[in-house]
Amino acid sequence: MKLDAHWMPFTANKAFKQSPILMESSSGMRWQTEEGQSFLDMTAGLWCTNLGHSRQKVAEAMYESAKKLSYVPSFNLGHRASFELAERLVAHSPGDINHVFFTNSGSEAIDTALKIAMAYHSAKGQSGRKIFIARERAYHGVNIGGTSVGGIIHNSRHFDRWGSVDHLPHTHDLANNAFSRGLPETGVEKASALKDLVALHGAENIAAVVVEPIAGAGGVLPPPVGYLKELRRICDEHDILLIFDEVVTGFGRTGSFTASIEFDVIPDMYTSAKGLTSGAVPMGATFCKDFIYDTVVGSAEGIELWHGYTYSAHPIACAAANACLDIYEEESLFTRVNSGIGAYFENAIHSLSDLPQVVDIRNYGLLGAIEFAPQSEGLPLGSRLFKKSMEQGLMVRGAGDSIILSPPLIIEEQHVDEFVDKLRAAARDIF
User: Which residue in 78, 121, 124, 123 sits closest to 102, CA to CA?
Assistant: First the structure.
């Protein structure tokens, strides 16, 4: 088999194709390669397989949908599964977030949220509100809007930032918060930077503030205690919308349906994807409060929002998501983190603080990161540990100087123990 035709995403293509790793099957917590090597998945794929791999109920629901209704456009047509799914999702959502717009990914969900924010302000006669305030080290997908508001330079260096965007400082503070368990105790004052940006740009020009409740790809950065509440307060003071990117933190990863519920801070909009279908099929969603929906929909006759996707609310994706919701609810997975496995995971990763050159370990729920000292030359230690872990049959994610962990919510204590043993073995090959 030739490998050249496939241009792989976020991959060193030349290196991969010289020594490819081709997965053949998956089940529960594990993948298996064509050569028969098994990998313990401590990343839930890309933060998404919350239910574990290859759930039979989800596969059967997708198959039955494909047989009966393989496709119907959502432009002026509908199907029952999409409306049922929307009702179920908003029932779990906090406050008066009672509307959902379906997309095909987290990237599309963020771009949708940005457009809805601008449409809302335009409907109010404030079409000058076009600036978005995001945050350093943020990841909001790779479409044009998400790339623009994102705060990871590698993702925007070659593409520029389309639109008016400014960034809050990130909340990572090694000097004061290293080895925090849960939310860092210090750093709420970092939210005051939003007041400075409002003064700089003018509230009348700002559409929304966009943040991840816990920064994911930027290194798993839990917010300081009170930080998100302060952002909410400042946004309310200036009539600025607050958007949470919950693509990583949604569907039980923090111990609640959303991080906004977990942290008791209700945004005006939030986005999701990944755990929505547990990675079985692409799907995303943008949620909004009643006042946003009512303002936009009430502003025009006919089509109120000139936006959508060919595959919005695809029948097979909706079938998968409904089946996933069944499993989440039947197995109490939205809150399983709080049953003891979250604490076991926390203790396990902090037990690795004795590894050489570890400068920080941080975690919340079933999210964690181990950060190593920067290297003056060669690959960062996070990237090197990723490669050595693969040799041990362990999948972690390398992110610069850190390794990132986001295991499926079905993880058991023996899996955590296996992870610790294999990571220590991988580290011994380096240090």
Answer: 78
